[in-house]
Structures are given as C-alpha cells and as structure tokens.
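User: Okay, second chain of the day. Same drill as before: sequence in, structure tokens out.
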Amino acid sequence: MNQLFTVYLLISLNTVSIAESTAQTNNSNTTAQAVKSLKLRSIGPALMGGRIADIAISPSNSSTWYVAAGSGNLWKTTNAGITWQPVFDHQSSYSIGTVTIDPNNPETVWVGTGENVSGRHVGWGDGIYKSTNGGKTWENNGLKNSEHIGKNLNDTRNSQVVFL
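Assistant: Same drill. Structure tokens below.
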C-alpha cells in the first residue's frame, strides 16, 4: 500500500506542477507554438484500458519499478517513471495479475498472469513466470491452467520458495 501511495503522490505532484505552470501562461499563441513541436509517443502503462493490477519497486534501487497492467503487459522504469518500456511482450499471455521482486536478488522478477477480477473485459493467464535478468527474458514456471493469479509472495529466507 505504501508503494501505491508513493506512485499516487508522484503523479499528483506532477499534475499540480503542470497545472500551475499552465495557469501562469496567459499567452495562448506561445502555448500553441510550444505544443506544436511536441510529438505523441507511448510513455508507459496508462494505455487504453489502463488497469494497473500491481506495482513492485526494487528494494535495492528505488528508481526501478515494475507495473503490472491487467489490461496488458508488464512495464519497467529505471528512472522512477520518467520513461517506461514493456518487458513482457513476447509471452503467450498479455494480462498480468501480480508482480514481485525477489528481496534477495532484485534481478529476479516473478509475474503471475491473468488479472484477478471478474468481468467480460478480463484476460486470463497461463501461469507464473520468472525472469532472472530484470525482465529481459522469461520462463514459465508452471500453473498453466490457473487462468488468474492475483498475488505472489517471495519467502525472504529462501528465494526458491514463492507463495501464490
């Protein structure tokens, strides 16, 4: 819950900051000129649907976050949310229900697929995945018929034990 509050606070502060700077600009021509040079680009997990299922922040580097989107993909930032990259594009499931980082090895990331909510809009998953290189590659570690994994916990005493 603390991590969600931190992310919410950062988003809120950025929104207030943008609103204040916009309010100070009275010249609409100047604003129009500045906006004209901006190009649209995908910057992260808030795409159409935008259902965030889980967030994991690295215990060793607070600028590295993983955001699990129930509506599709796992997103990673290494600069506290300034830029994002999808890291789960090439797997057989798109819907993510949960993400955790191994507390003993921050390069090991666990993803439970299949958002754990009900509705016609929900995609199902095909098990639990593990990455040992910070999301560069993934291996399905079973539970292929589970369809919805809503929570996974790492045992802090033994990284080989994961509770789902």
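DSSP finds two helices and ten strands in the chain.

User: Thanks, on to the next one.
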